[in-house]
Structures are given as C-alpha cells and as structure tokens.
C-alpha cells in the first residue's frame, strides 16, 4: 500500500452505522468492515440486522460486527446501543447517521402524525445518535472522531410530494454545518452526504420500480446510482484522507437533475 493510498485506510476504526439492515446502510457497514473497521449496526428489527452481521463476521478478512435492535427515535434505546458498542468494540470513532425513511404525499395530505414520524425518524433520530455517540467520542484516552450524516438531494432542492422528508433532510445539512464548528475543538469532524436516486429496496418500493429492471453498476447509468457509490464516499469521509474536510455536504447524484425531485430523473412523475 502506497503512502497516498494508506490515507484512505479505515482499519482499526470503531464505527456505528444506523439503519443498516438493507440499502445504503448495509453497504456502508459492509464496506467499512471490508476496510478493516469494526462496526456496530442497528435496525428496528433484530431479525433484519442479524443476517448483515453474520455475513460480515463470516468473512475472515473483515472487521468484527455487532448487531443491535434499536429505534433511533427512542433516546433510551440509542443510549443502550452506544453503550453496547463501547463495551464490545472499545469505543466509537465513526458515526454514520443513515437511518431514515419517507412516504410520498402532497403537503395537504400529510397528517400531523405522518409529519412527526418522518421528522422524528430522519432528524430527531440523527440528533439522538449524534449527541450520545459524540459524548463517547469525546471520552476515552484518544478523544475525537467523525460524524457522517445522510441527507438527500431532496434536502437541497424542491421536492414536490416529499415536503416532510425534504424539510428533515435540509435540516440535517444545517445541523452538519453548525456542529462542525461547535465540535471542531474536540477533534470531531462532521460532514454530510446527499445521495441522488440510488438503487435500494426503499426506492423501489416508494417509486414503484422493479429492482430487476435497474441497470448493473458496470453499466454506469448516470440517472441512478448504486449503494456502493455512496459507501465509497462515506469511507473517504471516515478516513484520514478527509482530515481537512469539515462541515461539507457531498452531493452524489450522477447527472444534473431533470426536474424538481429525484423521481423525475427517471421520468417517474
């Protein structure tokens, strides 16, 4: 490994990845573990996150993986998750706030409960995990770390029929920028990734796309990306190669947007 390449190394780091049962979160966890990091992953269902951990732990070349059932909207559950991570892995160096979700609805059709559920899952969940994991990063013999928040291009531009999700993801970008300043003195970098349309089970369900019709990564269809495209950026931000990157949002969207929401990139609206 060359000196330059070594800067992208994450071996020995202790990482938390939320919402890791499928899609982007799963690929991020697998990518970091393949790079030698030990990872703690969570999902709202233990049955969904266990197979991911088993796959990582079965690979002798990967780091270790701890799987925990955790609803990021539940502060006590988050505290228990981080406590288990510190006990099992010895600390927290990287937090990837990936847990999130959405449903498509016109603004006038969103109920108060629907609004609160999306804000709580995407924004308040990020708040809980960052505050609790941040405390763990500042403790110990070697304080410092990296927080990587997951926003969306829908948090950067108008997103008709996704106002609740768009508002939450926009707030995450502002939270990233503010916290990067507040926590700089603690040697904690805070950055953000804003994916465009990515081939995930969630996108397939939300937009009514058949996953089997999506192009393979080697086809390089710039309208829709793959989870690996996001995981590669996350690993960069978690590595020493990004040591001078703080408070930034990396937009990973392939091609300029054709309209005012992700789905218009494929002509789905």
Automatic annotation (TrEMBL):
Gene3D superfamilies: NAD(P)-binding Rossmann-like Domain
TM region positions: none
GO biological process: monocarboxylic acid metabolic process
Secretion signal span: none
SUPFAM superfamilies: NAD(P)-binding Rossmann-fold domains (SSF51735)
PANTHER family assigned to the protein according to its UniProt record, in alphabetical order: 3-OXOACYL-(ACYL-CARRIER-PROTEIN) REDUCTASE, 3-OXOACYL-[ACYL-CARRIER-PROTEIN] REDUCTASE FABG
Family under the similarity heading: Belongs to the short-chain dehydrogenases/reductases (SDR) family.
Protein name: 3-oxoacyl-ACP reductase
Organism: Haloglomus irregulare
Lineage of the organism: Archaea, Methanobacteriati, Methanobacteriota, Stenosarchaea group, Halobacteria
